[in-house]
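Pipeline run #58 for the internal structure catalog. This entry was flagged by the ingest filter as a single-chain record with no existing model, so it goes straight to prediction. Upstream metadata was stripped on purpose; only the residue string is passed forward. Reviewer on rotation: M.T. Logging verbosity set to normal.
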Amino acid sequence: MKVLILSTFGNYGGASVCSRRLAEAMSKHNVDVKLACIHKHSNSIAQSVFDKPRLASIYAWILFCLERLIVLFSIVKQKYLYKFSSSAYGINILNSTLVKEADIIHLHWVNFGFLSIESIAKLAKQKPVIWTLHDMWAFTGGCHYALECSNYKALCSNCFYLRNDKIAESIQAKKVTYWKEININIAATSRWLAQCAKQSTIFNNREIDVLSTPIDTDLFRPKGNRDALLSTYGLERDKYYILIGAVDLTDERKGMLYLFDAITEAKHYTLDIHILTFGQLPKNALQQHAHTSFGSISDQEMLVDIYNLADVFILTSVQDNLPNTVMEALSCGVPVVAFDCGGVNDMVEHKVNGYLAENRNVNDLASGLHYFHDNKGRLKAGQNAREKVLNTYSEEALVMQHVETYEQIISNYHSK
């Protein structure tokens, strides 16, 4: 069985990390798998989906720019430029050697000029296809996260991202038209996203599987001897280290304003707080708080070090699917304090391996930070965190689940 995983990016963003981790895990377990994308990165195992990569990549970038121009002239605010996708343009990959050779195609995040609504339909008519959703785009009128809006369950109108409601309605209708009759299997990485998809106008007549992404638990692991690690990074032993991190913490969906308020509140009874960060933060965001910023991290072993420096990891997203950062923290034996939103509660169990605060409730989030200030309780939660990942999200647990799903899809496809 030859598996081809498709992703827009080779190593940028949470969804590309998931597709890479899945490909690596399956390869370790002797599955014939290839990961292909249109925008490669030097430190990625992904290869180009094109037979002639150089010219095709230029063409792909042109399509990306055209698609973004459509969005730019449609959205209400420029900050929404990457929150909405029309997928008006896409690339025909049916003649790609990798596609022709594959027994099954596994789509992941394929926006930004890679696959259009129509090209996804054409692909599914030629090959067995499973599509793992990493956000809400596949079943909305174009937004990647709907936040408080639930119009995708009926008609995508009154879109707060757009100047013209007809655009979202048109995109939603196009998805219904092109995808209604095709044999495409839909999966989501969290129960929450699967439920949202099932409730949508576009996928309400389909079965939605939950297929989570594996993590390398040998890499993301508790390191022990934390005092030595703190010394290596020039950090004091008697502080309470709270870690935050994401590719882009400036995204309003990440809820950074709640973080600042929660830390200010937590300081009323937890005075020794020191914040550790990685990723892109809003400028001067933490100037009122003791903090250490590690910036963008490309070295995976250093990232594991940073998780191990932390007493707790905090996630302030107000809507999220199955964040890689949460899984990474848990795998390193670090309890997670987060809002109870999206797919986070698939991973975090309240007062077992973390703390789930009421969504957008700053005082409850601060209570979660205070809850793990106790060293004994924190250590137990850390052990539970590691056990949760080993049992649920390890490569051993999830590779076989994927392989069995592929085999069933291929069998069903050829029996029709």
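catalog note: The CA atoms of residues 13 and 247 lie 7 Å apart.
catalog note: Residues 395-415 form the longest helix (21 residues).
status: ready for reviewer M.T.
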